[in-house]
Structure of DUF3137 domain-containing protein:
Amino acid sequence: MVNIENNATLQNVLATLETERAKISSTQKKGYLFIGAGIIVAIGFSVWGIPVPGVIIGLFGAIYGGIVLYKIADALKAYKEAFKTHVIGTALKSLDESLTIEPYNGIPVSEFCSTQLFSEQPDRYHTEDLVSGNAAKTGFYFAEIHAEYKREVQTKNGTRTEWHDIFKGIIFVADFNKNFKGVTLVKPKDLFGTMGAWFSKNLFSFSDKNVINLESTDFDKTFITHSTDQVEARYILTPAMMERILTLNRNAKNTVSLSFIDSRMYIAFPLNRNYFEAPVFKTLLNPDLLNEDIAIINFMYDIVRELDLNTRIWGKN
């Protein structure tokens, strides 16, 4: 576990960055103040019946505010990158020396699609904050992802583009130490998942997505499991593994999804919060500041232990 208050290195990094944060915060407030004042002046003069001078004065104020924000943009970007590299990076090293973060890297869209956990192909895709490392024998990595698809909707005024989330959260990937012959998917059991499972099992013959009834009643109540190789799926989803997945799911904020493909295990964690982002208007010296970031780091790292992935019951071949 990472302990912020007792970590002298992390405290020193936070103290150094706090000076830069305070300067950026003050400058941004100044910029927003001039923009806001310019808008208020323009509206006020218009109400008083003298719109032209008001618009000119207000426009000057808004332009000046925009220039102030533009000039601080590079410093803001550098500060945010330094926060991820040095603050989050130091926290990761405190947990395990093998852990690293790459703010501008993530999980490629091709790999996202290859997890087979999502029915839609992304039309817009963003990924960042790739964290990678090893927990004992097991290599793993995870990253934040926001994948969306678009729909063209016809309205009386023409065509409107609507964007819908496919997934927003973290994808966790770990080496399972086995080259799987088939594909096994474990998805949340909601209304649509239940209907889809019933149709695939009773009306159609989807040999690549066969529904499996497992020995754990609790597991089958929470998840729907499909596999192209039912024997292999049962070797993967042992009673102990199913119990560990249920425990992991109870500790997650939303119901997780898993897939076992090639030699990797993928876990999708739906999340609404964007992690590892530097605060601008809140002090870095608040001891509670990093609580959620540290919690997600610890949670992801502990997955290897929770699922007992270091116990090598198979070889790769």
About this structure: The longest strand covers residues 138-155.
